[in-house]
Design brief:
alpha/beta, Rossmann fold, Arc Repressor Mutant, subunit A, five-stranded parallel beta sheet, four-stranded antiparallel beta sheet, elongated
Amino acid sequence: MGETILIIDDDEAIGNLEQEVLEGAGYRVLRAYSGTEALLVLQNTRPDLALLDLMLPGLSGEELLPRLQGVSVIVVSAKAGVEHKVALLMDGAADYLTKPFDTGELLARVAARLRDRRRQPETGRYALGDLTLETASHRVTAGGREISLTRTEYAILKLLMQNPGQVLAKSVLLERISLDTPDCTESSLKTHISHLRGKLREAAGKEYVESVWGIGFRIVG
């Protein structure tokens, strides 16, 4: 299977069409039928791209969009107004596709956004409160003090800071840091995070990494 795409749409017929086309092109597809369900899916996995409908039950697509940080989003909606499209693109959407759409155009836009994502240079600096991480130098500071981290601790912290406030499941953490730290295992992850929390606490006098029981971890300001 190729990259993972999350379809967020309560219209089962359209979702089924999108899934059939995408799986036929070799992508792995996940489904969510509401904004709330999408957030639950994101607790356990991190898709490479999301197709987001706006007219969702409960949490709307507009409300959900800011919470999809770190995921490339193509809005797929019947709302065709130019001003509305511009507003969504300014709010973080990568693209906008108007319903009804041609399946060939859907595949082309998905491929283009995934290509952009692969080419996108890594952000050089992440900051949360007085905690900063610089990717070029691997320099981490908290409370004005520089912190020495192991390779695994650094990889964990970088991933958490790329997804501020988002709960990341242990399986997601392990999957995403595996290229940087292939030696990190499910049994050792808790120890690495414990050491990371201790170093941050000692430097800044506060807790940055929060455990969410039964789910995983998140970073808070």
